[in-house]
Amino acid sequence: MSENLHSRAQKLLAQSLVEGLGATDQSWLDAHLIECAECSREAFNTRELLRAFRNVPVAVPRDLAARTQMRVRLRAQESAQSSSSGVLLWVIAVASWLLGVFSAPLVWRGFVWVGAQLHLPKPVLEFGFVLWWTVPALVAVAIVLHQRAVTNGFVGRGFSRDVQP
Amino acid sequence: MTNDTQTLADGLRRRDPDLLDRLIEQYQQRLYRYLLFLTGEPALAEDLFQETWIRVLERGHQYNAKSRFESWLFAIARHLVIDVSRRKKFRSLEELADPESSQPYEPPDPRAVSALQLLVARENEQAVQLSLLKIPAYYREVLLLRFHEELGLEEIAGVLSLPISTVKSRLYRGLDALKSLLPGGAA
After folding, report:
1. What's the longest Cα–Cα distance across chain A?
2. Could you tell me which of B136, A21, B154 has the C-alpha nearest to residue B145?
3. More confident residue, B187 or A27
4. How many domains does chain A have?
5. What is the pTM of this model?
6. What is the chain A residue with the closest CA to B123?
7. Are the beta carbons of A72 and B41 separated by less than 8 Å?
8. If exposure means fewest CB atoms within 10 Å of the residue's CB, which of B18, B28, B95, B180 is most exposed?
């Protein structure tokens, strides 16, 4: 039997496993495998190889699912808590902003009065007025960023510890 | 889109804890096997198994119910493996991220068929298991997804974020690699 026929049969055999064959090719291959002992043996061996591959034993650690379920539930609770505290933070921020906007004229009048008492120039008053509003916000941002960095650092260290071999 | 996948997507969006418990139970064998095949390290596979489900919890809203859940699950797991491989510089897993540029594939030994026959004669499944770890991870992965998980070519392409042509090429080469690495193949 010609070498080309064997070569074609082996190619079709692999193709049948990987992407499937059309009816014509499948019929040709089936007929060839009946006639050719060598290719038939190759087909049998390949099927056996895949069977052995599928039967490679993999034992899942006994309590892995339970540990994972517990960890997922804990994370879900943490997320829910952080989500509700995030909403609270937004409410406080909005309330603070509104309070700031509506109280600004009153605060400015206070600054003018203090400036008049201390004979301060207007640019100093304006600079002080700007600081009055920006410093608390900057401090709040710094605190939030610090807390986030601490949290991320903890989580990052935790995970990298977990993946040590 | 089936009702099942839509129900699943809704549950994941709600972060339904009971649903997640069921999914962890249901997919534990397949996911752990996939991770173990990729990493070759049981302890690391366990860590990644847990981390995968944390990601499922956090990104459940991204599952769109158009694909099978397992394809989405394997894609998440795969990204985690690649992340870890970048941090830890596993040789085999680095190949997973960019196989074509790492090393050329050696064609199988022409004596592979006789080695295969030897294997079949002995019914030596342990030999397959040992051989698997010698195969580059990117071949191991496609072989697992195709012949263990029985995913279609399009689904595998989705998991790997690769064109179908590349998936096919890896499958053909992976089959050859599997045959060539069996006992006696190098003898």
Report:
1. 113
2. B154
3. A27
4. 2
5. 0.67
6. A52
7. no
8. B18
Which residues, given as ranges, of chain B have pLDDT below 70?
Answer: 1-2, 89-130, 181-187
User: What distance in Å separates residue B48's CA from the closest CA in chain A?
Assistant: 8
Q: How far is B114 from chain A (nearest CA, A)?
A: 10
Q: Is residue A45 part of a domain?
A: yes
User: What domain range includes position A136?
Assistant: 64-151
Residue A56 contacts B, CB cutoff 8 Å: yes
Shared-domain flag, residues A73 and A115 = yes
Least confident of A3-7, A10-14, A104-108, A119-123: A3-7
Q: ipTM more than 0.85? A: no
pLDDT tens per residue, range B143-157: 999 988 889 999 999
Chosen from B55, B57, B61, B166 to mutate, greatest number of chain A CBs within 10 A = B57
Same domain? For A88 and A42 the reply is no
Dist. CA A70–CA B20, nearest whole Å: 11
